[in-house]
């Protein structure tokens, strides 16, 4: 059994109530500096660590921020977002608990862990938001796109990502666009808006709609897609993300085609491997660090009852490298 506050009380010769006041920094108590130092010294000597469960029972909440991920694959972008969010919130003494959207219902989870705030990487159902707020839990939401935008919910336009890709390719003189999608059904809610943005930008530029191919992340699948694009005269490919774009580059190499001489390629996310590709990959950065900082500030504002921060106006940027 671990060291308890009773052990600290015996070692320092004071009551458990005094130990509680000292260790919890209870305001408005008249405890001498000598007594306070004696309690703290005893706690340190014994290796006392206050119980998170006990703190939660006293306050009715914990120091946890529950981050809810939908049923998405966890790749470098989500990893980076969570790392930065955890670091930013740690400066406020908050810990991040990540719940992947499978299995246990969200309502069961937040009732069990009693978080101070719940952050959703997609918008919650209205009844879930209502239940959490009635329980005194702050809710910070995001959504995947800015269609039907709710000003209380942060959105990054997935359609704008597709539009930026095509605008860049057209500015490079490309006239027949292919789109490289993913076969992962979990990513449909990202992929379809990005494809819609690519299609709309092609129409705006007076081009035919994109020739769509959905790839496995392997060379044979990419090679088959490349052949279909070349048969149709495609001279540029906008990929769903950088992983798919890297597969496209492999397929182009297999077919003996030059990048960007024969086909230009642009991805999304600016993952570290994009800089190491052959050739280095042009991509649309989503400024994940900026998004994480905004979510951390929005979380802290919700806890403090303060005005939410202004969302960053533009987190999307085309990072130009040799592949286009």
From TrEMBL:
Keywords: DNA-binding, Transcription, Transcription regulation. One of its GO terms (molecular function) is DNA binding. Residues 3-59 form the HTH lacI-type domain. SUPFAM superfamilies: lambda repressor-like DNA-binding domains (SSF47413), Periplasmic binding protein-like I (SSF53822). Pfam families: LacI, Peripla_BP_3. InterPro entries: HTH_LacI, LacI/GalR-like_sensor, Lambda_DNA-bd_dom_sf, Peripla_BP_I. PANTHER family: LACI-RELATED TRANSCRIPTIONAL REPRESSOR, LACTOSE OPERON REPRESSOR. This is LacI family DNA-binding transcriptional regulator. The lineage of its organism: Bacteria, Bacillati, Actinomycetota, Actinomycetes, Micrococcales.
């Amino acid at each position: 059994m671990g060291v308890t506050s009773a052990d600290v009380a015996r070692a320092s010769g004071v009551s458990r109530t005094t130990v509680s006041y000292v260790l919890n920094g209870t305001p408005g108590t008249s405890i001498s500096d000598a007594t306070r130092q004696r309690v703290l010294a005893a706690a340190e000597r014994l290796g006392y660590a206050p119980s998170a469960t006990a703190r939660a029972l006293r306050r009715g909440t914990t120091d946890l921020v529950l981050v809810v991920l939908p049923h998405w694959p966890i790749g470098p972008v989500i990893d980076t977002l969570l790392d930065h969010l955890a670091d930013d919130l740690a400066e406020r003494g908050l810990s991040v608990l990540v719940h992947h959207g499978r299995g246990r219902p969200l309502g069961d989870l937040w009732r069990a862990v009693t978080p101070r705030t719940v952050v959703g990487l997609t918008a919650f159902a209205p009844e879930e938001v209502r239940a959490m707020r009635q329980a005194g839990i702050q809710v910070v939401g995001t959504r995947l796109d800015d269609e039907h935008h709710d000003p209380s919910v942060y959105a990054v336009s997935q359609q704008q990502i597709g539009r930026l890709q095509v605008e860049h390719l057209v500015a490079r003189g490309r006239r027949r666009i292919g789109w490289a999608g993913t076969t992962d059904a979990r990513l449909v809610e990202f992929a379809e808006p990005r494809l819609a943005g690519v299609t709309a930008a092609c129409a705006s530029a007076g081009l035919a709609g994109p020739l769509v191919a959905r790839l496995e992340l392997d060379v044979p699948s990419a090679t088959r897609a490349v052949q279909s694009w070349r048969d149709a005269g495609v001279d540029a490919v906008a990929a769903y993300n950088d992983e798919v774009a890297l597969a496209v580059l492999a397929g182009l190499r297999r077919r003996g085609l030059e990048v960007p001489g024969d086909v230009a390629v642009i991805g999304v996310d600016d993952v570290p491997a994009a800089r190491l590709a052959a050739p280095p990959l042009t991509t649309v950065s989503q400024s994940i660090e900026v998004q994480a900082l905004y979510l951390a500030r929005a979380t802290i504002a919700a806890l403090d009852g303060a005005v939410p921060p202004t969302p960053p106006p533009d987190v999307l940027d085309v990072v130009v490298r040799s592949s286009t």
